[in-house]
Design brief:
Elements lengths: L19 H16 L7 H12 L3 E5 L6 H10 L5 E5 L7 H4 E6 L4 E6 L6 E5 L6 H5 L2 H6 L1 E4 L2 E4 L5 E6 L12 H4 L2 E5 L6 H10 L15 H11 L6 H16 L3 E3 L3 H17 L7 H12 L4 E2 L1 H5 L4 H11 L10
Parallel strand pairs: 1-8, 1-9, 2-5, 5-8
Antiparallel strand pairs: 3-4, 6-7, 10-11
Helix pairs in contact: 1-2, 1-9, 10-11, 10-12, 11-12, 12-14
Length: 336
């Protein structure tokens, strides 16, 4: 495994006596503040992306062309002192173009591993649905086990390892839909949407002379990020909240318009992100509102709508809203 260049700039150290939740909140706010200078008017989406990073999950950014999907991923990478790699997926890309390949060195008479672009800490998988299913499958091991296997040899990823994938849902020419197994490995699915007219005017003014991302600086060290990720795990989740999460996932499987409901990995995603949301709010415990706020982002892309329901324009997001309305909230009535 090759050596990667390290960031030599001075970064603040983690205080050993700082409360874990305060540490996570501080790190998150610095990241959000930095990215918001580039992604105008999308603070909620920026917070979701940061939340996914703190939860150690991969993020799928799905939206129409030109709304800032790629720029969001690049801005996130610049705020952290991590190695960054971009993979531009195309239909002719091979799995070895992603993972790397073993080449025979005639001088040493041995095979040497030439790492692919996946061997970085922050990986931007741009237009991931343009690659063939075979190439998409090359990401599965890396996303779940944080390692790649080439010619029988396993190479671990360096922590933190996060894939931010983008795809355009309306472009069907030359695209291959992501399989269910790969969609399930994404912690969150985020949509940016069009900016408002006022926000679009701000974007024009901000980019008149140069793009704001050129002036972005690292605001969080790898040490701080890893400490914040660990701090998230210490947020308390009551048994009633855990049961609420499981009830939501189970209800998605029993919905009459669903062909395939959320997997147990979806329950865990909702559990982890709820912990992160609580910490970002300065709480060391999860409340039902944390779960409700993240149900759509964590569960909708794991739900496959039945054929009859698709004809009626019923979407997975609609189903999540139905499930939220029908599932009793701890300490309250679902119909209250």
């Amino acid at each position: 495994m090759p050596d990667y260049p390290q960031d030599t700039r001075q970064t603040p150290r983690v205080s050993s006596n700082q409360h874990p939740v305060s540490l996570a909140q501080n790190v998150a706010e610095r990241i959000v503040q930095s990215i918001s200078q580039v992604i105008i008017g999308k603070r909620n989406e920026v917070r979701l992306t940061t939340l996914g990073l703190l939860s150690r999950g991969h993020i799928l950014i799905e939206d129409i062309p030109g709304v800032g999907k790629t720029m969001l991923a690049k801005a996130l990478a610049r705020t952290i002192g991590c190695t960054f790699s971009r993979i531009q997926f195309t239909p002719d890309m091979l799995p070895s173009d992603v993972t790397g390949v073993s080449l025979f060195n005639q001088k040493t008479r041995e095979f040497e591993f030439r790492a692919g672009p996946i061997m970085a800490q922050i990986v931007l998988a741009d237009e991931i649905n343009r690659a063939t299913p075979k190439t998409q499958a090359a990401l599965l091991e890396a996303m779940e086990e944080k390692q790649v296997t080439v010619d029988g040899v396993t190479y671990p990823m360096e922590e933190p390892f996060v894939i931010l994938a983008t795809q355009n849902p309306i472009e069907y020419e030359g695209t291959f839909p992501l399989p269910e197994a790969q969609l399930d490995r994404f912690l969150l699915r985020i949509q940016l949407g069009y900016p408002s007219p006022a926000e679009e005017l701000t974007v024009l003014s901000a980019q008149q002379y140069e793009h704001p991302i050129n002036n972005m600086r690292q605001v969080v060290s790898v040490q701080e990020l890893l400490a914040a990720q660990q701090a998230i795990r210490e947020v308390y989740v009551a048994d009633e909240i855990k049961r609420y999460i499981v009830d939501l996932a189970n209800a998605s499987r029993q919905h009459p318009d669903v062909y395939l409901g959320s997997s147990p990995r979806g329950s865990l995603a909702l559990f982890r992100t709820s912990q992160a949301r609580a910490a970002m709010a300065g709480r060391d415990y999860v409340i039902p509102d944390d779960v409700k706020a993240l149900a759509e982002a964590t569960l909708a892309h794991r739900i496959i709508v039945g054929p009859a329901a698709r004809i009626k324009d019923i979407t997975s997001r609609t189903i999540v809203q139905d499930v939220l309305a029908a599932t009793s909230v701890p300490g309250a009535s679902a119909w209250q």
